[in-house]
TrEMBL record:
The middle region has homology to RecA with ATPase motifs including the RadA KNRFG motif, while the C-terminus is homologous to Lon protease. SMART domains: AAA. The gene is radA. Belongs to the RecA family. RadA subfamily. This is DNA repair protein RadA. It comes from Croceibacterium salegens.
């Protein structure tokens, strides 16, 4: 009797194991392995070098169709997409539950439908009535969207196959979809992958833009369907702190454009509002100089965004292990920066608790943030406020040097535009705007001297 080969797929990362284990060997998630039945068994008996249809080769420089992009009607959404929707594109929209994915897509669908496009919105999570209520609240009650509440991919594709293909098809969410050709409950890797495959095939054949909503697990992966990331053309992530109103839309992968542009939104009573000038938003409420606050001209793609870095230092009396808590920045990078400040500048943080926060729920990934964080830390430690209208940027090395960063000119111009009249950063920056004083800080001790004073 031949033994059937069993395999187990991790629902978190898609890793394959040949025996069941309590913990996934790939991503270390617990209880995530689920048995999977392979769709087909390959054997040497199948010879594929015969019996196929001839495929057609075309020269690379053949005159192809031009990539026609279509606006979503939300310029911030278009910007994050690299210029709009491309027909036939499959887009995965990931984000935490409750962050606003359905709201964003309903607004974009309504705007697109109002321009005459045929838009189909299928919700597997909410009843049609609920979606309609939301549309009313968003002021789009009259938008000519074709709305359905369904979870069977067969039903959806059969229905769509009976008429002309829509311009946009939104599936909210892929985890609720179910295909009767595949075993397993909705949301399992095999279901998610199978359903996505069928829907993507429909989109490619019909030139429909497909948007799949995918919920994200706590560790930031698009749940289970990380396996989807290579099946789709575009992976978008909708981010933000739920307690804050700001939301950032970014592309993590884009076959049709750059991945470094962001779209900024604010969640308000009537849905998401676009924020064309994000700097003003991340800097609200800065009127009096406060120790521990430094402004950093961050760069998202080609777009400069000024954000405030806040540090708080609390001296401990007892010998308890001090806490380090970070929101919006990398905690190991903070540990490194503290070590550099201790060993190169002689500052002492070892008996103090250190808290670091980036305002507005913004997440910094730009390495040029080092100097702004250092300035905030030194200012908090010394209890000396930094000048209100000053900005700080530069990458700090382990030796305590301040290294040049990309697009210094762009950062300085944005800061000057918003009324900042002083900046500190690496020695080489190129042109500095006229209204701005630039202090080159080539080493961290120099920064400390400048903030604490040579006293
Ligand atoms: P939703 O789009 O349902 O999130 P997701 O689809 O990502 O799970 O957004 C839900 C949250 O947004 C909910 O907590 C309420 C809030 N919200 C507003 O603040 N204003 C609004 O106009 C709408 C529609 C939602
Ligand atoms: Mg939703």
């Amino acid at each position: 009797m031949s033994k059937t080969k069993r395999r187990y797929i991790c629902q978190a990362c898609g890793g394959v194991s040949h025996r069941w284990q309590g913990q996934c060997p790939d991503c270390a998630e617990w209880n995530s392995l689920v048995e999977d039945t392979p769709a087909s068994v390959f054997s040497a008996k199948h010879d594929l070098s015969n019996g196929g249809r001839a495929i057609e080769f075309v020269p690379l420089d053949a005159p192809g169709e031009k990539l026609e992009r279509r606006s979503t009607g939300l310029p911030e959404f278009d910007r994050a997409l690299g210029g709009g929707l491309v027909p036939g594109a499959a887009i995965l929209m990931g984000g935490d539950p409750g962050i606003g994915k359905s709201t964003l897509l309903l607004q974009a669908s309504a705007k697109l439908a109002q321009t005459g496009a045929d838009v189909v919105y299928v919700s597997g999570e909410e009843a049609a009535g609920q979606v309609r209520l939301r549309a009313e609240r968003l002021g789009h009650a009259k938008a000519p969207i074709r709305l359905a509440s369904a979870t069977s991919v067969r039903d959806i594709l059969t229905t769509l196959g009976r008429g002309p293909a829509p311009t946009l098809l939104v599936i909210d969410s892929i985890q609720t979809m179910h295909s009767d050709t595949i075993e397993g409950a909705p949301g399992t890797v095999s279901q998610v992958r199978g359903c996505a495959f069928e829907l993507i095939r429909y989109a490619k054949e019909n030139g429909t833009v497909l948007v799949l909503v995918g919920h994200v697990t706590k560790d930031g992966n698009i749940a289970g369907p990380r396996v989807l990331e290579h099946m789709v053309d575009v992976v978008m992530s909708f981010e933000g702190e739920r307690s804050h109103q700001y939301r950032i839309l970014r592309a993590l992968k884009n076959r049709f454009g750059a991945v470094d542009e962001i779209g900024v939104f604010a969640m308000a009573g009537q849905g998401l509002e676009e924020v064309p000038n994000p700097s003003s938003l991340f800097l609200t409420g800065r009127e009096t100089p406060i120790a521990g606050s430094a402004v950093f001209p961050a760069l998202e793609g080609t777009r400069p965004v000024l954000v405030e870095v806040q540090a708080l230092i609390v001296r401990l009396q007892s010998g308890a292990t001090p806490r380090r808590a970070v929101v919006g920045w990398d905690s190991s990078r903070l540990a490194m920066l503290l070590a550099v400040l201790e060993s190169r500048c002689g500052l002492n943080f070892s008996s103090a608790e250190v808290y670091l926060n980036v305002s507005g729920g913004y997440r910094l990934s730009d390495p040029a943030a080092d100097l702004a964080v250092a300035a905030a830390l030194v200012s908090a430690l010394a209890n000396r406020p930094l000048p209100l209208r000053s900005t700080w940027f530069g990458e700090v090395s382990l030796a305590g040097e301040v290294r040049p960063v990309a697009h210094a000119g762009l950062r300085l111009r944005e800061a000057a535009k918003l009324g900042f009249d002083a900046a500190s950063g690496p020695a080489e920056v190129g042109e500095v705007p006229k209204a701005m004083r630039y202090d080159a800080v080539d080493r961290l001790p120099k920064l400390v001297d400048r903030i604490i004073g040579a006293s």
